From TrEMBL:
<keyword id="KW-0963">Cytoplasm</keyword>
<comment type="similarity">
    <text>Belongs to the TRAFAC class YlqF/YawG GTPase family. RsgA subfamily.</text>
</comment>
<keyword id="KW-0694">RNA-binding</keyword>
<keyword id="KW-0547">Nucleotide-binding</keyword>
<feature type="binding site">
    <location>
        <position position="321"/>
    </location>
    <ligand>
        <name>Zn(2+)</name>
    </ligand>
</feature>
<comment type="subunit">
    <text>Monomer. Associates with 30S ribosomal subunit, binds 16S rRNA.</text>
</comment>
<feature type="binding site">
    <location>
        <begin position="227"/>
        <end position="235"/>
    </location>
    <ligand>
        <name>GTP</name>
    </ligand>
</feature>
<feature type="domain" description="EngC GTPase">
    <location>
        <begin position="132"/>
        <end position="283"/>
    </location>
</feature>
<feature type="binding site">
    <location>
        <begin position="174"/>
        <end position="177"/>
    </location>
    <ligand>
        <name>GTP</name>
    </ligand>
</feature>
<keyword id="KW-0342">GTP-binding</keyword>
<dbReference type="InterPro" id="IPR030378">
    <property type="entry name" value="G_CP_dom"/>
</dbReference>
<dbReference type="InterPro" id="IPR027417">
    <property type="entry name" value="P-loop_NTPase"/>
</dbReference>
<keyword id="KW-0862">Zinc</keyword>
<keyword id="KW-0378">Hydrolase</keyword>
<feature type="binding site">
    <location>
        <position position="313"/>
    </location>
    <ligand>
        <name>Zn(2+)</name>
    </ligand>
</feature>
<comment type="function">
    <text>One of several proteins that assist in the late maturation steps of the functional core of the 30S ribosomal subunit. Helps release RbfA from mature subunits. May play a role in the assembly of ribosomal proteins into the subunit. Circularly permuted GTPase that catalyzes slow GTP hydrolysis, GTPase activity is stimulated by the 30S ribosomal subunit.</text>
</comment>
<keyword id="KW-0699">rRNA-binding</keyword>
Amino acid sequence: MSSSSSSSSSSGSSPSAPFTLAALGWDDSLAAELPDGLIPARVSRVDRGAAEVMSASGHLRADYGARVRRAAAADPVALPCVGDWVGLRRLAEGRFELEELLPRRTAFVRGGVSRLSRGGLSGDSQGQVLAANVDVVFVAEPALHATDTADLSRIERLLALAWESGARPVVLVTKSDLIGEGLEFLLDEVATAAPGVDVHPVCSVSGEGVEIVRSYLEGTRTAVVLGASGAGKSTLVNALAGEDVMETQQVRAGDGRGRHTTVHRELIPLARGGLIIDTPGIRRIGLYDMGEGVDMVFSDLEELAGRCRFGDCRHDTEPGCAVLAAIEDGTLPERRLESWNKLQREAAWMASRSDARLRKEIQGRWKSITKEMRKTGRNRP
Ligand SMILES: Nc1nc2c(ncn2[C@@H]2O[C@H](COP(=O)(O)OP(=O)(O)OP(=O)(O)O)[C@@H](O)[C@H]2O)c(=O)[nH]1
Ligand SMILES: [Zn+2]
């Protein structure tokens, strides 16, 4: 029986020590956004209509106040999510209400996101924010998954999502112990799929590479780990935490609760600094509105395409095509061109399904929601 899981991932149930706000990433600019009289806290997890938060007085549970509920009903993007900074009000009976959502610096939105100039976000009406205020995105892809080596196109997809969020992407080739001799070759291949992005091998079992991962979390930086189910995300989070804070597949294997071990997104403060968000494995990644993210992932191809003889070169059979020339001389893997074409088609298709005017209108929505919420908050008697 493996039911004696040492997991304390349902942090609400464990007695909790108070947190130093600064260690959670609180700073002056956030403080300036907090309306008077509210208690600052950071969301560690959301759970149907309520949030678990970390505050100077430890873990608290906070129900959503009326304004938050109204705003979220009008636009799901306004729903609090893991990583959010919020303002709480203490009610007479000792309960806490989540009254204010502070502006997000970065955010992952499922169903489409584009970054606005500063702190603002936009999403389509189906948008759901997966994580907010993240500095680093670890894209976790196992060196070996069943019998397949790292899936380069999955890395490219996750990278597009990562770039789009406004955070810094880093690729981690997890379970590096499983591939032996072939590791160097695999790392080179992964690097071609991730121009401009650091790539590191990690083995959470032996601890190899874990300190490099930690170095991205210096100070109070917040990271999120994205990847398929079984990529080793929870095992890595446990290795970083130095204790079992997340359940992993082995622990859960016997109790028949399905293949996905991690069901909640959870923000975990690490004893040695920094915070990390474990996420359930991502099955499908929508590329709606991801044009910019895709461009970043294929910056090497964009650069080559700029040197094609024809401005509208489709890199198919055209003479003077710099992309085809690079494939010809072996500097560009052909797979990259195929992947680029595919993701571009997909992004264009997704975009064509949405009404351009509607999307434009939605663009300013996040900002106005925040403003509106603040205004009504300050006018309260
Ligand atoms: N050999 C080896 N196995 C590992 C490593 N890291 C994780 N595993 C194993 O891979 C399996 C999946 O790991 P998890 O950490 O549960 O994967 P996950 O990405 O969190 O999965 P979900 O929670 O379902 O999204 C477990 O059986 C781990 O023990 C590693 O570095 N090397
Ligand atoms: Zn061309």
